[in-house]
Amino acid sequence: MQKLLQDVIVLVKDTGDFIRKESAQFDDSKIEYKGKNDLVSYVDKMAEKMLVQGLGNILPGSGFIAEEGTSNKRSDIYNWIIDPLDGTTNFTHGIPVFAISIALMKRGQLALGVVYEINRDECFHAISGGGAFLNHMPIQVSPVKTLEKSLLATGFPYYNFEQMRPYLSIINELMQTTHGLRRMGSAAVDLAYTACGRFEGFFEYNLNAWDVAAGALIVQEAGGLVTDFNAGSDFLLGRQIVAGNVTQPELLKTIQKYWS
Known about the structure:
Layout: H1 2-24, E1 32-35, E2 38-40, H2 42-58, E3 63-66, E4 78-86, H3 88-92, E5 99-106, E6 109-117, E7 122-127, E8 132-134, E9 137-139, E10 151-154, H4 164-177, E11 180-182, H5 187-195, E12 201-205, H6 209-221, E13 225-227, E14 240-244, H7 248-258
Parallel strand pairs: 3-4, 10-11, 10-12
Antiparallel strand pairs: 1-2, 4-5, 5-6, 6-7, 7-8, 8-9, 12-14, 13-14
C-alpha cells in the first residue's frame, strides 16, 4: 500500500501541474453547467481523464467512482473515488483554493486518501491504520478542547436550498459561540485543514462521496472523528458530514438542535 500511495502522489502532483498551468490562462467562456450553479470546465474533464488513466495503470482491474463520469467501471475489490478539481467555482473565478481528491476503497472500506492543495503545493495523505501526513510529515488534529475556542469550516449548497432555514440557524449559533466560521469553497481542503489542526471542525450537507472520501480518512487517521448529522457512519453516501477533533460531539450536538 505504501508503494501504491507513492505512485498516486506522483500522479496527483503531475495532474496538479496541469491544473496550475491552466489556471494561469483560463478562459471563463469555456465554463459549462451541469446544473444550476454547478460548474465544470475542460480542466476538470481533462484532469479526470489523466487520473483515471494513471490510476488504472497503477492498480490494473480497479474500478472508479469519478465526478465527471470518465469511467463507470466498478470492481468487487478496489474502487477509486475521484474529484479531479474540488473547488471548481473558485478555480473559474481565480480564487486559489482548489484541490485534487483521491480515495481508494477496498471491499467497501476506505483504504487510502490523498488531497493535493495545488496552489500551496500541500499534499495530505493517509493509509488506513497508518496515520496522516502533510508532505510526508505526521499531522494531528487540533488540541483545542472546547467549541468556544474553535475555528470551524463549513460550506453553502449551490442547489437543494430546502434545508437552508435550519442550516442558517446552525450557522447563527456557531457564529456567536466559537472563534468563527470559514467557507473555503472546497470540502476536500476543509477536511485536510481539519486534519492538520488549522480548523477544529468542519460540517456541510449536500455533498457527494468524491467530495469527502479522501479527506474523511485523513481526518480519522489524524485522530479526528467523522460522522453524518445523525452521529452515524453514512457520511460517504448520506450527503452530510461532521468532522473534527475532540470537540466534534459538541459541534454535532449544536447541529442536531436545529437539523431534523
